[in-house]
Amino acid sequence: MTATHLSDWDRDAALTTARILLEIKAVNFRPEEPYTYTSGWKSPVYIDCRKIISFPRARTRICDLAVEKINRHIGFESIEAVTGGETAGIPYAAWIADRMNAPMSYVRKKPKGFGKNAQIEGDVPEGKKTLLVEDLTTDGGSKIRFAQAMRDAGVIVDHTFVVFFYGVFPGAQEKLAAINLNLLHLATWWDVLEVCRERPYFSEPALKEVRKFLEDPVSWSRDRGGVASMEEAEAYKAKAG
């Protein structure tokens, strides 16, 4: 299986992003000692998009691609404000807002509990068509919570952007679509695997195990003691608080 893209430009942008992530060692493969995500999924792969902020040329290229993707798929004048999700989405939102000459704010995971008890910091873009920005998404859960908080504050949010979308866990895009939230992303794990064919970033046994995970993440997680459905993932997160 390989990644599917809307256009040649989208494919080129995805592979460029994947190459950057591999070069700065933001990509981690650990089949022998699986990662456990906050949603309870077991996985041999983990990506640290926060590393990008420490590499000026990498972040410049990725943010340029982000804005081009937004313009191509949403429109040049269709976004009036940009909001970052606490905390990893804040720097990306700032850089994207700067390039788009748009106001920027950020949304907390929960109200801060004192003062005005605000959940959105900055000038709340009430009534404005606002782009929600984060670094990545696995199952879409945090995007839904952020979007709901924004909508409760009167913000119009129909689109969310992330640098990296895992693109493997069942129901993620359907969950977002169910609340009328359109997801834009630059790269997925399939793009990373395609770039790994160009250079030996990881051993062939590791790549083989990662392919097995990508082709059937539910069974891979279940067989290693992780959750095996979106329902189990939601229950796991609720229990963890």
UniProtKB/TrEMBL annotation:
The keyword Transferase applies. It comes from the Bacteria. 5-phospho-alpha-D-ribose 1-diphosphate binds at residues 108-109, 112, 134-142. Its EC number is 2.4.2.10. Orotate binds at residue 138. Its cofactor is Mg(2+). It catalyses: orotidine 5'-phosphate + diphosphate = orotate + 5-phospho-alpha-D-ribose 1-diphosphate. Keywords: Glycosyltransferase, Magnesium, Pyrimidine biosynthesis, Transferase. SUPFAM superfamilies: PRTase-like. One of its GO terms (molecular function) is orotate phosphoribosyltransferase activity. The keyword Transferase applies. It is an enzyme of class 2 (transferase). Pathway: Pyrimidine metabolism; UMP biosynthesis via de novo pathway; UMP from orotate: step 1/2. Belongs to the purine/pyrimidine phosphoribosyltransferase family. PyrE subfamily. Catalyzes the transfer of a ribosyl phosphate group from 5-phosphoribose 1-diphosphate to orotate, leading to the formation of orotidine monophosphate (OMP). Homodimer. This is Orotate phosphoribosyltransferase. The lineage of its organism: Bacteria, Pseudomonadati, Pseudomonadota, Alphaproteobacteria, Acetobacterales. The gene is pyrE.
